[in-house]
Amino acid sequence: DPTKYEFLQVTSPRPGVAQVTLHRPRALNALSTPLITELNASLTHINASPSIGCVVLTGSEKAFAAGADIKEMAPLTFSQAYTTSFIESWSQLTSTLKKPLIAAVSGHALGGGCELALMADVLYCTASANFGQPEIKLGTIPGAGGSQRLTRAIGKSRAMELILTGRFFSGDEAERWGVAARSFPTHEALMEGALATAETIAGYSRVAVMAAKEVVNKSQDLALRDGVEYERRVFHSLFGSHDQKIGMKAFAEKKNPEWSHE
Ligand code: HXC
Predict the structure, then answer these.
(1) Which of 5, 84, 179, 212 shows the smallest number of beta carbons within 10 Å?
(2) pLDDT for 89-136, tens place per residue?
(3) Catalytic status, residue 88
(4) Which of 65, 68, 103, 211 is catalytic?
(5) Contact 33, 81 (CB under 8 A)
(6) Structure pTM?
(7) Tens digits of per-residue pLDDT, 155-181?
(8) Which domains does the chain have, with CATH numbers?
(9) Torsions phi, psi of 17, nearest 5?
(10) Which ranges of the chain does DSSP label H, i.e. alpha helix?
């Protein structure tokens, strides 16, 4: 049963929405390799589930995730890390899942936890959430994209300061800097906000939603001219979908569209 995991809880609290809750409370959701393996398995399953249109990834009120598992990393040698491509499996998260992923961050999101949140398509947090890249204090550096994604999100000077000092930053700051799309006063408000947004997204054409996610993400990799051209190609391709006909016909007839998701 793919919904039975040791370190995750997977539920569907709203129509079309999957909620994946990191659940390793004794270690503040430290992201061990077995946990990431389960997360990849759950997202692969969700990606293939026609009934799911959007995913909310969250932790507990106390911790989204306090980082990669320091106890697992402590004895690793260079050769082991290099030959096993340690941490590479985290990248599956962004490559397998074509449906939007909303991270709902409460409490600690440190090191790999911060990097995991930065991989999400939309980041929501509580105002008091505790973000940071404290790897420097452990004698190492971010290893799951933090130096790249945080720098793109907040600019070089701020990212450099945070990564070189290990200083934590709040959910409030994350929102002001544009790392988070929104911050919420409480954990409850955060979850309500994340699930409501996920339900809205899950109510649209799956084809259009996936295409929208794909083209926005391309903007992170491509130069502007290439990105605009890429967007136009994908836009053209959507004239081949049923849902484009359904959506535009419904508008003209002043009806609600009934998506075929094709
Ligand atoms: C393994 C961890 C952990 C972690 C917490 N724990 N974070 N175990 N890896 N990243 C464990 C603690 O050892 C402890 O276990 C239990 O969780 C509760 O933690 P406490 O420290 O007792 O809780 P508290 O006093 O509330 O402090 C919370 C905290 C602190 C400030 C978040 O736990 C902390 O500083 N954690 C490490 C944060 C960090 O440096 N993260 C970056 C990791 S490096 P016991 O058994 O003692 O009860 C990283 C590299 C990324 O992520 C690069 C590749 C992805």
Answers:
(1) 84
(2) 999 988 999 999 999 999 999 999 999 999 999 999 999 999 999 999
(3) no
(4) 68
(5) no
(6) 0.97
(7) 999 999 999 999 999 999 999 999 999
(8) 8-202 (3.90.226.10), 206-252 (1.10.12.10)
(9) -115, 130
(10) 33-47, 70-73, 78-83, 92-96, 112-119, 146-154, 156-165, 171-177, 187-202, 206-218, 224-237, 242-252
Neighbours of 143 (CB within 10 A): 18
List the structure tokens of 212: 């929208």
Task: Calculate ∠ Cα 61-100-40, nearest 5°.
Answer: 70
> Is 161 among the residues known to form the active site?
no
Between the alpha carbon of residue 65 and those of residues 15, 239, 253, the distances in Å are: 27, 41, 48
Q: Output the residue whose Cα is nearest ligand 1's atom 18.
A: 27
- Nearest Cα residue to atom 29 of ligand 1: 66
Query: In sequence order, what are the beta bridge partners of 104?
Result: 58, 124
User: Computed from CA positions of residues 117, 227, 99, 88, in that sequence, does the dihedral angle turn out positive or negative?
Assistant: negative
Cβ atoms 55, 3 nearer than 8 A: no
Give the list of residues 6+ apart from residue 220 with CB closer than 8 angstroms, or none. Answer: 152
Structure tokens at 195: 């699930």
111 lines ligand 1 (CB under 6 A): yes
The residues near 160 (Cβ < 8 Å, ≥ 6 apart) are: 151
Q: Which residues share a beta bridge with 202?
A: none
Gap from CA of 141 to ligand 1 centroid (Å): 16
Sign of the CA dihedral with 149 first, then 152, 157, and 158 last: negative
| Catalytic residue status for 214 | no
Using DSSP's 3-state secondary structure scheme, residue 203 falls into: coil
